[in-house]
């Protein structure tokens, strides 16, 4: 039976990625957020095996590489929703989701509200600028 390990982020000096490797991985993810990025590619950039990289990344961040990527894609989507007039289809592709349906599913599961309703809520609560 496999033993599951949980590493709390930054509580232990052992088991995680060194700061340089963590920075490399995060920069690579953020630079390619709109594209598919294999964990094997991240591991190779850090000169680690795929399994060692995944385990160490989770120890360093508290999230698996896929969870961290998904979190960053959702943060980018929220930025685009509030700061642009792009359609949800355009936003989903810009943020690396395979299609709008998948994006809406992941967004709703994360936020408890669909992206269009979230956008409407943000617009409603946005302070209006009054010209002097």
From TrEMBL:
Entry GO CC: cytoplasm
Subcellular compartments: Cytoplasm
Protein's UniProt keywords contain Protein biosynthesis: no
Organism: Pseudomonas extremaustralis
PANTHER family named in the record: HTH-TYPE TRANSCRIPTIONAL ACTIVATOR RHAS-RELATED, TRANSCRIPTIONAL REGULATORY PROTEIN
GO molecular function terms attached to this record: DNA-binding transcription factor activity; sequence-specific DNA binding
Keyword terms: DNA-binding, Transcription, Transcription regulation
Function: Regulatory protein of the TOL plasmid xyl operons. XylS activates the xylXYZLTEGFJQKIH operon required for the degradation of toluene, m-xylene and p-xylene.
Protein name: Helix-turn-helix transcriptional regulator
Sections of the chain in a coiled coil: none
An individual GO BP term: positive regulation of metabolic process
Ranges for domain HTH araC/xylS-type: 23-121
Domain of life: Bacteria
InterPro entries in the cross-refs: AraC_XylS_family_regulators, Homeodomain-like_sf, HTH_AraC, HTH_AraC-typ_CS
Pfam family, one: HTH_18
